[in-house]
Amino acid sequence: MSLSRRQVAAAAVSSIPLAFAAAQTAQAGGRRSRTLYIAGDSTAAQKYSDAAPETGWGMALPFFLREELEVANHAVNGRSSKSFVDEGRLDVLLGAIRPGDFLLIQFAHNDEKEEDPARYTEPWTTYQEHLRMYVDGARARGARPVLATPVERRRFDAAGNAVPSHGEYPAAMRALARREGVTLLDVQALSLALWQRLGAEGTKAYFNWTATEQDNTHFNPPGAIAVARIVARELLRGRVLAHRDVRRLDEEIPESRISWPAPATA
Predict the structure, then answer these.
(1) What are the C-alpha distances in Å from 215 to residues 50, 65, 96, 117, 210?
(2) Within a 13 Å sphere around the CA of 166, how many CA atoms are in the beta-carbon half?
(3) CA distance to 19, 27, 44, 134, 227, per residue, from 168 (Å)
(4) Is 18 exposed, middle or buried (0-12, 13-18, 19+ CB in 10 A)?
(5) Cα–Cα distance, 266 to 200 (Å, whole number)
(6) Could you tell me which residues are beta bridge partners of residue 148?
């Protein structure tokens, strides 16, 4: 389905009412809270009650951040670094971002789809070119861009070893981060190591495995919480955030903390 940029803008703004309202209220009082924006795909995106128990890691990230740091999750199911731009979603995000904010960028799952020209990017050319749009756009507005390599899928070989699934995309992002001087969160390497420790059977408790579905890409609440913890720790390690910005990094987060709002109505 093709959407106009005005429709995309309306949908994106309505999907982040709390973060947007909080920022506007603080600004009206002469002080504005910082906001961490997420641009990404379904692994990070907000999920709704019709998709439960599927959970994006962006839904769990606020559990590890102080309340003064808002999270505006613009990640959307099925998007690549290219289609997110082509649909006008980056324009919407950059229209809201302000000096002192952060833009966390995670794409590759859908960039890999060679059969779909609307989403496909080649790792060392068009993928990097699109990622640079996010980096340059954030910097032009006084915000700090942060690149995150794509979280790994649940994939094991016959010997029980966790197997990478993203080809050259993580390496291409790492190279771009070095060249552009952007902080990199190596979520791909860290999630792969976590899946290896948990094993082929143990990881089933972190992915969206249900009685009717065996999903090795998307997370359930424990998986989303585990990946969000990786992201928060990496934000601290990379000095994107300070110790005063994070919390509960070593605490157990009950999966009951996750909630799925009702789907938005047109």
Answers:
(1) 16, 28, 34, 24, 8
(2) 28
(3) 34, 42, 21, 20, 21
(4) exposed
(5) 41
(6) 185
Sorting pLDDT into bands at 50, 70 and 90, what band is 21? Answer: very low
214-219 vs 207-209, strand pairing mode: antiparallel
- Burial tier of 170 (Cβ tally within 10 Å: 0-12, 13-18, 19+): buried
Q: Kindly report, residue by residue over 132-143, the tens digit of the pLDDT.
A: 999 999 999 999
Task: Determine the 3-state secondary structure of 108 from DSSP.
Answer: coil
Q: Which two tokens stand for residue 239?
A: 């000095």
The C-alpha angle 219, 221, 224, rounded to 5 degrees, equals 55
CA distance 206 to 184: 24
CA distance 104 to 220: 21
- CB 255 within 8 Å of CB 221: yes
Handedness of CA 80, 49, 71, 60 (dihedral sign): negative
Which contiguous run of DSSP H or E holds residue 185?
strand 183-185
Taking all residues of the chain, what is their mean pLDDT, rounded to a whole number?
90
What is the DSSP annotation of 43-84? TTS---TTTTT-B-HHHHGGGGB-TTSEEEE---TT--HHHH
Tokens of 25: 């209220």
Kindly report whether the global pTM for this prediction surpasses the value 0.85.
yes
For 214, the enclosing helix (H) or strand (E) is strand 214-219
pLDDT at 32: 64
